[in-house]
User: What shape does this take?
Amino acid sequence: MSKSLQAIRGMNDILPEQTPLWRYFEGTVARLLDNYGYKQIRMPIVEFTELFKRSIGEVTDIVEKEMYTFEDRNGDSLTLRPEGTAACVRAVLEHGLTGGGQPQKLWYIGPMFRHERPQKGRYRQFHQIGLEVFNLDGPDIDAELIVLTWRLWGMLGIRDAVKLELNSLGTSESRGRYREALVEFLSGHLDKLDEDSQRRLKTNPLRVLDTKNAETQAVLVDAPKMADYLDDESRIHFEGLKARLDAAGIPYVINPKLVRGLDYYSKTVFEWVTDKLGAQGTVCAGGRYDGLVEQMGGKPTTGVGFAMGIERLILLLETLEQVPEEISRQVDVYFCAFGEAAELAALTLSEKLRDQLPNLRLQVNAGAGSFKSQFKKADKSGALYALILGDDELAQQVVSFKPLRGQGEQQSIAFDALAAHLATCIVQG
Assistant: This one.
């Protein structure tokens, strides 16, 4: 027997019973970003590999180990995007969106791809919502990104489960001085560093700060601190950010080991983390990347942004039982019709109801069936009410209206009064 076809490991189907929560989350975020003046941009899933090598950094784990890269029929090296910032910067440059120093506040949504070991909350195809802001260089826009996420956590009911961690990486010059000091310190403790940290010491030493190895973490207690090497510009910027967060009443902790995993960050970096999801604790992260646009061939352009992992936030909502009860119901009214004449009338009447009540979620029975079978389908649909139309009702130009959840008696409603009655009942329901 041939092997049954299955999804690729780490690339998951999102099934019909799961999609209402996804749509609720995505819709909540989209409305919030509309209210803050962000505009959506949509980029291709596949980009030239060189884009990510130039932006993320060739010695990062993402480029070295995790990218899905292949050669197409023209011999070009292409990559499924592992993150969204590089692709967004490429689009901004290609279409001249930041010409003349024009500010841009953009957001995107979609799948990203990294060849990692799949586990709960970490997948090979995962979904992100990202924000990128260009040509605004003050701490006020950094603060806005954090403030709007704080508002989002409140809207979702998860504020108590997340914590904000902040750090400043300074400019490339100050970071270079710190890197030298860190390498010198760690080189004197090589025997106590884990194998991965020894490798990173030669390629990307700041990532050693991010190690989870307990022995290496013990060494880092006495390591030089980034804050001691910050330039005045970065220090003033960071103080300005903290002052705005204090004014907005947003709690945070300074994490001097927070460096993020991408080469392009400078000055502000931040993460929203939770202890409710085990090892996969980061649900939203980002920072400032003032040199990235120029690094990719554009004119000097400041940038700042973040990305949030949709899978992890969906998992957090489920873990905290913050899933609104109403989103699991996808049908308000189920229309049962018995006999060909009643079926024709139900079709006509249901379309009139949709004209009169555009937001009504109305499902008309398909496939005929007995009274018992149609009511079984009505109940399974999760509808609040059933409409019943048979020969007797048709003769009287009425529809039987039956509540399916909770109290209420079955009653007959005239065709021309049905829309008004449903409008009242659905609001109350």
Q: What stands out?
A: The mean pLDDT is 91.
